[in-house]
Design brief:
Blueprint (H helix, E strand, L loop, with lengths): L2 H15 L4 E4 L6 H12 L4 E4 L3 H15 L3 E5 L3 H4 L2 H9 L4 E7 L24 E4 L14 E6 L30 E3 L3 E5 L8 H11 L3 E3 L12 H4 L3 H7 L3 E5 L6 H9 L2 E5 L14 E3 L5 E3 L6 H13 L7 H10 L6 E4 L3 H9 L7 E3 L10 H9 L5 E6 H6 L12 E7 L17 H6 L6 H7 L3 E5 L2 H8 L6 E7 L3 H22 L4
Helix pairs in contact: 1-2, 3-5, 3-13, 10-18, 11-12, 11-17
Amino acid sequence: MSDSTKLAHSLIRQLIEVGVSDFVMSPGSRNAPFSIALSQAANKQLINLHVKLDERGAAFFALGISKAINNYVAVICTSGTAAANFLPAALESVHGVNKLLIITADRPARLRRTGANQTTDQIDMFQSIKTHDIASDTNIKSYLTGSPVHLNIQLDEPLISSAEEDWLSGIKITPINFANKIKGKLKVSTGVLVVGHDRAGYTKSEVIDFASKLNWPVIAEDPLSFPNSVAHASIFLADQKISQQLKPKQVISIGRTTLSRSINSFIVSINESVVIDPRIKNIDSRREAKILLSELPDEIISDATNSEVWNKASNIAAKELENLPWSEQKVITKICEQLADGSAVFIGSSRPVRDIEAFVHPRSGIEVFANRGLAGIDGNISTIFGIAEKFDSTTAILGDLTFLHDISALANSPKLNIRIFVIDNNGGGIFSTLPQSNADNFEQIFGTPHNLDLLKITDGFGVSSSRVSNLDELNQLISKPIIGLSVVIVSVPSRSENAKNLKEIFQRVSKAVRIGINLA
C-alpha cells in the first residue's frame, strides 16, 4: 500500500466519520489517490460522489450543496491552476459564512520551487482561509470549526496502489454539531430591524424568533423568507421626505445591510445602530455601529414599535405596483408568487436580488438562496445545481450575463428538477440604473450587449429550453410542473427602457405614499 493511498484513506475515512457526506471532485493525476478512495466509498453508499469537469464549477457546485445542508462539503482537485480555480468560490464561502472544505492535491514539499511540472505555492492561496499543509497522517477534526477550510495534501509517487485493504469497515458516523451561538442580553427602545439576505449565517427560525421578541417593523432583503416583513420599503424609502418621517430612534442590522441604496442611506441616517454579525470578529472587523455583537442575543428588552405607518406605506406601495407592465419586475414578482411550497429558489446577483427586495410581496414556504457573500455573477449555475441536489424542485432567476458567465456548467448538468429563468435584456441591466449610465461609450464598457440567441446556445448543450415574451406565455409556463432541467429565456424591454420605467415607478409610489401618510 503506497503512502499516498494510505493518507487518502485516512483523511476520507475521518471526514466520513465526522459527518461529511458529499464530495465533489474533478479528474486529475495528482489527486488520483483521493479519486479512487472516493469511488470506493461511494460504491459502499457511504458518501455522495459528484464528478465535475472543471474546478471552478466544481467549487461552486460544492458551495451550493453546503448552502443547502449547512454542513461541510469537500471539493477536491489536482495541483497547479486546478487549485487556483477554486478561488472565486472560496472567497464567496468566506464572506458568505458557508462551510466549504477545499482539498488540493500537491507535490511533495521537496519539489516546490524546482520547476517541477504543475507545481506552485499552494499554501495560503485562498484569502482568509488558513491552509493546513499535510504530508502525513493527521487528525483533521480539529480543523473543522465551521469556517471554510483548506487542506493541501502532499502526495508522493506511487499515486496508485495495487494492494487491497478493507479501509472502510467499522465506520461510525458522529456528525459535528455546528449550531449557531445564540446568547446574551440586548436592551433597546424603539426602532426598525433590517435583515440582510444571508442573515449572518443564522436560520430563518432563529431570526424570526429574535424579531418576535423585539417587536419592531422588519425590513428584509429577502422578503420570501419573512412573511411579516415590510414590503417595498426600498422603494418608498428612496424618498428622503418619507425616509425622514419614518426614521426611528434605533436600527438593528442582522448580517450585512441590503444592496438597496435607499435602505443603506436610511440606516446611516439613524443615530443609534446595532450590528449583529459573527463576521465582525474577523472578516468585517472595521464594521461601524454604536453596538457591535458577534452573537444573536437570546434575551431582548425593548419597547414595541408602532408598525401602523410602516404597514400603511407598504400597502399603498403595493397598490401602486399591482398593474405593472411587462417588465423584469413583473416577471420576477409573478414567478415568486407561484413558487411551490417546499421548493428552493436561487436569486442571481445584480438586478434580480434587488428587484425581489423591492417588488416581491413577502411570503413563506420556500428556501431562498443567493451568492451574497461577494455578490458575484460567476458560478451561479453551478451553485444552483449544487442546491438542487437537496430539493425535489428548484427554481432560479438569473440575468443574461450571469447565465453566460457560467454557461459551461450546462455541459455537466445533473438530472434533477430545475427551471432556470434567464432575464434577457441583452447585457448588464444593472448599470443602466447606476451613475455609470451617463458615461461615454456606455454600451461598450458597461452595457456590454452580447447579441446572442440564448435559446440556440442552450439547445446546443442539449438542455430543454423555451422563450416567453409576454405575461400570458409566462403564466402558461409557470403552471406546468418542473420536470427535469429546463431553461426559460424571458425577453423583456430594453435596459434603458427598464431604467426609465423604474424611475417612473419610484416616483409614482413616492407620490402615493406621501399622500397616504399625510406628507403631501
